[in-house]
Write a structure and sequence with these properties.
By secondary structure, the protein is mainly alpha-helical. The chain is built from twelve helices and two strands. It has a two-stranded antiparallel sheet with strand order 1-2. α8 packs parallel to α10. The chain is globular, with a radius of gyration of 21 Å. Keywords: Membrane, Transmembrane, Transmembrane helix.
Length: 287
């Protein structure tokens, strides 16, 4: 009797996913194994490469080219190809133009994770980043697989996961760049494309498969200006990242609310609350 009651209890607590929303575990596990193997090789790659430079009147731009950066590109391409291979398992047999939508965010997570794994020495900290980062990456890939098809039971949680992971990733990037003392123009090259991709993906899911290029461009320009202003303030890396992420989330949320046609009186409430909350955390951690 107890065994017969267990499935009913599980059905009542855990929303049942449709057949098309269930992960193809065989392909997913193979992709996960190859990607983890790629990450494991990063600390052992040491090549002498010449960094390309661009000399302009009064400026010298140096783009750092290292073995870890090349390896980061390689692992990112592995994730993109793996994500596409997993998506081909869906019952809908999605065309390439529909599968392309689900590449950018896993690629961004994979690239961001490969940077510290390729620069740090193997240590308990390296293993912590490896473990938590891999879980984060595979959670994003699983969520992208769920939201790729028709609206179902898992869509809401997949959307929440993608949104949370996107802005957590942006926070990590901002804090890492600030802590490393990266030059301002190199921060632009990382943060602006990252937030543009995040805004596009977030609004695409929120607007039900409609691209909002105008809002992505507006938020990207505003984040560029805000990051420039914050760059010259005496802020700790975590405070800098929290403030910038607060603005990024607030602007994205406001854009989504306005696109949904919500009145201005209520559209600004959630963005303002999140910006104040993250600003308060920045003040607490910056003391």
């Amino acid at each position: 009797m107890a065994q017969e009651g267990l499935p009913n209890l599980a059905d009542g607590v855990i929303p049942m996913l449709s057949e098309s929303e269930r992960l193809p575990l065989s392909r997913f596990s193979q992709v996960a194994a190859v990607v983890c193997l790629g990450y494991a090789t990063l600390p052992f790659l040491h090549l002498q490469l010449e960094s390309p430079t661009l000399a302009l009147p009064g400026f010298l731009f140096v783009l750092p080219l290292t073995s870890s950066s090349l390896a980061a590109i390689w692992v990112t391409l592995l994730v993109i190809s793996g994500m596409d291979w997993i998506l081909q398992e869906r019952e809908e047999r999605l065309a390439l133009r529909y599968r392309l939508v689900h590449w950018p965010l896993p690629a961004l997570v994979a690239w961001a994770l490969s940077v510290p794994l390729g620069t740090l020495q193997v240590s308990p900290q390296w293993w912590l980043i490896f473990g938590l980062g891999s879980v984060l990456l595979f959670a994003v890939m699983a969520a992208e697989y769920v939201v790729a098809g028709q609206i179902g039971a898992g869509q809401f949680w997949a959307y929440v996961t993608l949104t949370a992971v996107s802005f957590a990733l942006f926070l990590i990037l901002a804090v890492t760049l600030r802590a490393a003392g990266v030059r301002l123009y190199l921060q632009w090259l990382v943060l602006v494309p990252a937030i543009v991709l995040i805004v596009l993906r977030n609004l695409y899911l929120r607007m039900v498969e409609r691209w909002s290029w105008e809002w992505a461009a507006v938020v990207g320009v505003l984040i560029l200006q805000i990051s420039t202003g914050l760059h010259y303030l005496p802020l700790k890396p975590l405070s800098y990242g929290l403030i910038l992420t607060g603005f990024a989330y607030g602007l994205t949320s406001l854009a989504g609310a306005l696109e949904e046609g919500r009145p201005w009186r209520s559209a600004w409430l959630e963005p303002l609350i999140m910006m104040l909350l993250l600003g308060f955390l920045a003040f607490i951690f910056g003391r």
